[in-house]
UniProtKB/TrEMBL annotation:
InterPro entries: P-loop_NTPase. It comes from marine sediment metagenome. This is CobW/HypB/UreG nucleotide-binding domain-containing protein.
Length: 82
């Protein structure tokens, strides 16, 4: 199962999804949580927190492409991914 979650900044998606993963783990179900924003900042440590949308569109597209390739690779190995 693959679940994609989108939403506005600040609606606390991350902590909610962490709780979903914990709930699943308590029932012996492994769920891999991929946070696109966190992965983008990890891939580009020179970008200050909260400034990812201030970079050039070319670099932003390149970062997104790289992160989604990583997530797709994880999805092939994980039975459940958010």
């Amino acid at each position: 199962m693959i679940v994609v979650v989108t939403g506005m900044v600040g609606v606390d998606k991350k902590s909610y999804l962490q709780k979903v993963c914990q709930f699943a783990a308590e029932r012996d179900k492994k769920v891999v949580l991929c946070n696109v924003g966190e992965q983008m900042y990890a891939e580009a440590p020179d970008i200050a927190p909260g400034k990812i949308l201030d970079i050039s569109m070319k670099r932003l597209s390149s970062l997104r492409r790289s992160i989604f390739k990583d997530i797709i690779a994880k999805a092939r190995k994980a039975p459940n991914l958010i």
